Amino acid sequence: MKLTTITQLTLDGVTQGNGHASDEDRRGGFDRGGWARGAGDDSTRDHIAATYQRADAFLFGRRTYDLFLESWGTLDEMRQHPIGVALNSKPKYVASRTLRDPVWENTTVLGGDLIAAITALKAGGDGELQVPGSSLLIQWLLEKDLVDEMELMTIPVVLGQGARLFANSGRDIAMNLVDSRTDSKGVTIQTLRPAGRPHYAPSF
Questions:
Q1: Structure pTM?
Q2: pLDDT tens-place string over residues 32-49
Q3: Coil, strand or helix: which one is 176?
């Protein structure tokens, strides 16, 4: 399966607390949650729904899994939404060493040798293994060269605080732009594929 990551982020790269609740994620004193609420026009909302629907399976970090369970996996109105239908009906994998007995249907916990487990999933057939949110997991997947494609949905706002998609230090990666679009509210959606290391100016 192709492993794709799906991320909402701000212009300054923040991914923390993008959901509907202002107190969704208060780590590090973060108090600017809900910044993605209402962002994008109908075409972007349709695109998001279609993105989840095309997935064959989902891979989560533990924090994102718990947040999605509390909303898409629990609330009847959200379970009946096309995104909720996709999330509830398709296989879900969680990278966690602490989750023991998941209550969300179709969930498998990947503990132990995570590289081997994800490599086996990717080799297990065609389709798309999709990673919604889960920024820390995405950083790890990029370090291990396990990401095939990234979709970045950038909301036109600068927060000035919060956890970011890319850490202050880490692996350097060149990206090829596969697709790009901007909606009527200024939300941009870019699809990129890792393309080895960047080229730098020669030293003199």
A1: 0.91
A2: 777 888 889 999 999 999
A3: strand
